[in-house]
Amino acid sequence: EVELVESGGGLIQPGGSLRLSCAASGFTVSNNYMSWVRQAPGKGLEWVSVIHSGGNTYYADSVKGRFTISRDISRNTLFLQMNSLRAEDTAIYYCARIIGYSSGWYDYWGQGTLVTVSS
Amino acid sequence: QSVLTQPPSVSGAAGQRVTISCTGSSSNIGAGYDVHWYQQLPGTAPKFLISGNNNRPSGVPDRFSGSKSGTSASLAITGLQADDEADYYCQSYDSRLSGSGVFGGGTKLTVL
User: Fold this and answer.
1) Partner of B37 for a Cys bridge, out of A51, A104, B49, B71, CB 3.0 to 4.6 A?
2) How far are the Cα atoms of A35, A53, B27, B43 from residue A50, in angstroms, in the given order?
3) Rounded Cα gap, residues A22 and A44, in angstroms
4) In this predicted structure, what is the pLDDT of residue A103?
5) Nearest Cβ partner of B103 from A46, A59, A111?
6) Residue B58, SS3 per DSSP
7) CA-nearest residue of chain A to B57?
8) What is the pLDDT of residue B100?
9) DSSP 8-state secondary structure symbol assigned to residue A30
10) Closest to A50 (Cβ–Cβ): which among B47, B99, B105?
């Protein structure tokens, strides 16, 4: 059974760093396109980043240069390193598996982890 | 401002049919990219509902269907039920935005 479990969220001051993890089971992370999607309080979904099975990575303009997506094959885990955090990064962060490459759909989602950026 | 535009809210009586629109442009829906739909119940993670080729995961009833024409897409829900009340999001791909999936702003469905 496919499962995604995020962790690593919390309260962090502006300018700080946080690393989110997404532990996967039931499939191999490195064989799939994987993405991070966030949702600010009371707002809609916002695509953040994607890592392709071949290792290419892409980012939303709002996080480019500050966030880094990566994966650990041995741990079958996806990561999001977030640096220089801003108040507007406050959101629930979801990891999701993509089926059908870049234009595909997000078939499994984690439960989300809340990141709050505040002094 | 979302790349894909959805109405903020729609409503319908139990048993009726509603549609939720998703309007894009020539660089996403109009370029031929599929549109996919998600349901988000209050306080939960989004759930994959239907893909662009009307592929539904097990457990999603055929009361839910998707369609696309030109630069727009629609999600239709027939036989509305109380537990259909949720937020619905469309998603596609935009060729102007490298690697990016794009989402609509979401539509709150209220079942009267």
Assistant:
1) B49
2) 4, 10, 19, 24
3) 21
4) 84
5) A46
6) coil
7) A107
8) 75
9) G
10) B99
Q: What is the pLDDT of residues A16-49, one digit of tens each?
A: 999 999 999 999 999 999 999 999 999 999 999 9
Please give the residue of chain B at the shortest CA–CA distance from A107: B48
Dihedral (Cα; B93, A111, A10, A58), 10-degree rounding? -20
What does the DSSP assignment read for A48-70? Answer: EEEE-TTS-EEE-TTTTTTEEEE
- A92 touches A61 (CB < 8 A): no
Nearest C-alpha neighbor of B45 from the set A97, A109, A37: A109
Of residues A50, A41, A7, A6, the one with CA closest to residue A116: A41
pLDDT tens per residue, range A46-99? 999 999 999 999 999 999 999 999 999 999 999 999 999 999 999 999 999 999
The nearest CA of chain B is from the CA of A46 a distance in Å of: 7
Among chain B residues, CA nearest to A52: B99
Residues in chain A: 119
- Is residue A8's pLDDT more than 90? yes
A chain contacts of residue B93, beta-carbon cutoff 8 Å = 102-103
Q: Select the residue of A56, A59, A105 nearest B36 (Cβ to Cβ).
A: A105
Token code pair at residue B55: 């592929």
Give the other-Cβ count within 10 Å of A34's Cβ. 23
* The one-letter amino acid at B105: G
* pLDDT interval class at B41 (50, 70, 90): very high
